[in-house]
Amino acid sequence: MVQLHDLTFEPYIHDTDIREKVSGLAARINADYGNTELHIVSALTGSFMFTSDLVRHLHMPCYLHFIKVSSYHGSTQSTGSITLDAELKADLAGKHVLISEDIIDTGLTAGFLHEYLMKKQAASVKIAALLFKPNAYKGSLPVDYPGFSIPNDFVVGYGLDYKELGRNLKDIYKLKDS
Ligand code: IMP
Ligand code: MG
Predict the structure, then answer these.
(1) N or C end of the chain, less CB within 10 A?
(2) Residue 81, class by beta-carbon neighbours within 10 Å (0-12 exposed, 13-18 middle, 19+ buried)?
């Protein structure tokens, strides 16, 4: 059990299962892209741990970009509004881009990023996410590389936070009794 602010979280996905899932996703990405140059766009802050674990398994020439988006603003419910806190300076025209997300909930963030990157005239934009909540998903884009599909539980750990706490936990926890 883990206490973060006013809420209690219980163990949900163990670190060994996360590692196995991440290397499996990387294997699929390696198979699909081969030696094609890839630009990873990691959505901070939540995706920092997933991205860093994922990229060490990738074999193609890999560029890394970090973009800061916020959608939750410190609660356990998505607000529906997305803010871009830092622009991407890189020229991605004609490049193959992979969005790296910790979790896809409503899909608003991934949809927003996809549109933003397509406007930069990327040759292709695909999406990888460690966690995916299919029942909350409102997007129309395919999630190309989904890790774990989970129910609409609020989860923390492995980069994911509740009011900025819990990001450092190596396992994933879910809200107790949710
Ligand atoms: P979406 O735009 O609704 O898909 O939400 C994406 C963002 O909301 C993620 O990148 C997370 O930062 C946050 N988020 C969604 N679900 C959870 C959760 O269960 N725990 C912690 N953060 C979450
Ligand atoms: Mg968050």
Answers:
(1) N
(2) exposed
Is 171 tagged catalytic?
no
Confirm or reject: Cβ of 102 under 6 Å from ligand 1: yes
* Residue 21 backbone dihedrals phi, psi, to 5 degrees: -65, -45
What does the alpha-carbon distance between residue 45 and residue 92 come to, in Å, rounded to a whole number? 21
DSSP class of residue 36 equals: -
- pTM of the complete model: 0.95
Cα–Cα distance for residue pair 21/6, rounded to 1 Å: 30
Residue appearing with tokens 């998505």: 78
Q: Is the minimum distance from the CB of 72 to ligand 1 under 6 angstroms?
A: yes
pLDDT over 90, % of the chain: 88
| Annotated catalytic residue within 105, 144, 153, 171 | 105
> Is residue 30 scored above 70 in pLDDT?
yes
Structure tokens at 54: 């994922």
d(CA 132, CA 130): 7
CA dist., res. 160 & res. 129, Å (int): 12
